[in-house]
């Protein structure tokens, strides 16, 4: 079975194939009749051990638009509450013969572990601070549709890079497609050795955003911090929150992106999130299309031919 566990391991060709396929899915999703029978007869289970709005909803819609039967496991009401482990939970669902499991978990590597155990395709919907591959694909699709290319663009990824699987997947993907990546953050919110990923590091927003084509803001993940390492919201916004003055340093037509969920007034000012340069809602739309492209690619290559 084929899996999507991370951007690491995908070639430039794989990525281009998925983005082209997702472009087709955008067209379908904008029609009145959105449903196809591409995955008819196949079963998709969404298994989310962490909260989600965008990823879970878009995987569910993506599966339904492809004609699959989609089940959302509500982990909060499941036997996980009674102490059942991740693997036992997954093996229990595996016994019901799903064709694809979409998994989000707080631990890095959880999806890769499950992929070795279950008898179906697995998609990583976010594992700890490791990877969130479909988010990076939808971000790349948004950029490509807006700018016509990715190669040669300067992308500034700003904020809590330390805790961000979105940043990690985007650095790998956008670098592979030829973008220049900058990270802009206080040193306490950067992983040690981030330079080894081939990024330029800045600690000042105006410097880091200078002439950028894309400004990607990240949520301050306060729930993953403790004690004196939790910055004060007021101070954080003053130095690292995206407002009109800081955005002025980027190119006048720079895109403003945020994977969501966003904290208005913490990492981004409301007027910027809702402003003319923001493509945050387009990112959400691209999320459904990218997830359709990913599931169709994994499952059709498994089954060789579409369901009749
Ligand atoms: N961007 C993202 O993964 O959002 P959710 O946590 O709402 O799925």
Automatic annotation (TrEMBL):
The keyword Transferase applies. One of its GO terms (biological process) is 'de novo' pyrimidine nucleobase biosynthetic process. Keywords: Pyrimidine biosynthesis, Transferase. Carbamoyl phosphate binds at residues 54-55, 104, 132, 135, 260-261. Residues 2-144 form the Aspartate/ornithine carbamoyltransferase carbamoyl-P binding domain. InterPro entries: Asp/Orn_carbamoyltranf_P-bd (IPR006132), Asp/Orn_carbamoylTrfase (IPR006130), Asp/Orn_carbamoylTrfase_sf (IPR036901), Asp_carbamoyltransf (IPR002082), Asp_carbamoyltransf_Asp/Orn-bd (IPR006131). It catalyses: carbamoyl phosphate + L-aspartate = N-carbamoyl-L-aspartate + phosphate + H(+). It is an enzyme of class 2 (transferase). Residues 152-297 form the Aspartate/ornithine carbamoyltransferase Asp/Orn-binding domain. It comes from the Bacteria. PROSITE patterns: CARBAMOYLTRANSFERASE. Its EC number is 2.1.3.2. GO terms for cellular component: cytosol. It holds the Pfam family OTCace. GO terms for molecular function: amino acid binding; aspartate carbamoyltransferase activity. L-aspartate binds at residues 82, 165, 219. The keyword Transferase applies. Pathway: Pyrimidine metabolism; UMP biosynthesis via de novo pathway; (S)-dihydroorotate from bicarbonate: step 2/3. Belongs to the aspartate/ornithine carbamoyltransferase superfamily. ATCase family. NCBIfam families: asp_carb_tr (TIGR00670), PRK00856.1 (NF002032). Heterododecamer (2C3:3R2) of six catalytic PyrB chains organized as two trimers (C3), and six regulatory PyrI chains organized as three dimers (R2). Reversibly catalyzes the transfer of the carbamoyl group from carbamoyl phosphate (CP) to the N(epsilon) atom of ornithine (ORN) to produce L-citrulline. Catalyzes the condensation of carbamoyl phosphate and aspartate to form carbamoyl aspartate and inorganic phosphate, the committed step in the de novo pyrimidine nucleotide biosynthesis pathway. This is Aspartate carbamoyltransferase. It comes from Hoeflea prorocentri. The lineage of its organism: Bacteria, Pseudomonadati, Pseudomonadota, Alphaproteobacteria, Hyphomicrobiales.
């Amino acid at each position: 079975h084929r899996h999507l566990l991370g951007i690491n391991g995908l070639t430039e060709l794989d990525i281009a194939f998925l983005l082209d396929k997702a472009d087709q899915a955008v067209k379908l999703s904008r029609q009145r009749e959105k449903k196809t029978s591409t995955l008819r007869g196949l079963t998709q289970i969404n298994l989310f051990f962490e909260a989600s709005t965008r990823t879970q909803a878009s995987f569910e819609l993506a599966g339904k638009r492809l004609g699959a039967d989609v089940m959302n496991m509500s982990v909060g009401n499941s036997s996980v509450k009674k102490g059942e482990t991740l693997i036992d939970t997954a093996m229990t669902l595996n016994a019901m013969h799903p064709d694809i499991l979409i998994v989000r978990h707080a631990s890095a590597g959880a999806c890769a572990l499950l992929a070795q155990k279950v008898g179906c395709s697995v998609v990583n919907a976010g594992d700890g601070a490791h990877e969130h591959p479909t988010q990076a694909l939808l971000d790349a699709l948004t950029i490509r549709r807006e700018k016509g290319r990715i190669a040669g663009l300067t992308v500034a990824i700003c904020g809590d890079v330390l805790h961000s699987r979105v940043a990690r997947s985007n650095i790998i993907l956008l670098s592979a497609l030829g973008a220049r990546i900058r990270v802009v953050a206080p040193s306490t919110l950067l992983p040690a050795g981030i330079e080894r990923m081939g990024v330029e590091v800045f600690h000042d927003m105006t410097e880091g955003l200078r002439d950028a084509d894309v400004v990607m803001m990240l949520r301050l993940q306060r729930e993953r911090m403790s004690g004196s390492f939790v910055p004060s919201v007021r101070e954080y916004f003053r130095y690292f929150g995206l407002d009109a003055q800081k955005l002025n340093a980027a190119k006048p037509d720079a895109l403003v992106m945020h994977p969501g969920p966003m904290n208005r007034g913490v990492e981004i000012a409301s007027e910027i999130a809702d402003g003319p340069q923001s493509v945050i809602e387009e990112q959400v739309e691209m999320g459904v299309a990218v997830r359709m492209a990913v599931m169709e690619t994994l499952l059709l290559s498994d089954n060789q031919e579409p369901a009749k």
